[in-house]
Amino acid sequence: VEDEEIVFRREGDQEGGWTAISKKDRALRVLERREEREKDREEAGRRAQRLRMDHERTLRSHREAAERCRRRLQATQRRIAEYEGGKIVRKQSYFDSLLEESSLLEEELLRLEESVPTPSPEIPQLERRSMVRTPAPAEAQASRRSRILGRAAPRPHSSSSAEEEEEDEEVSDREGDYCPQNYSREYRGVVTLRQSLAGSLNVPTVKLANLIGVDAVIDMARKLGIRGKLPYELSLALGSCEVTPFEMAHAFNTIASGGVCSRPHLITKVRDSAKRVVYRHKASKRVVLGRNICADMHRMLCSAVTEG
Question: What would the pLDDT profile of 114-133 be if each residue is shown by its tens digit?
Answer without folding.
Answer: 888 888 888 888 888 888 55
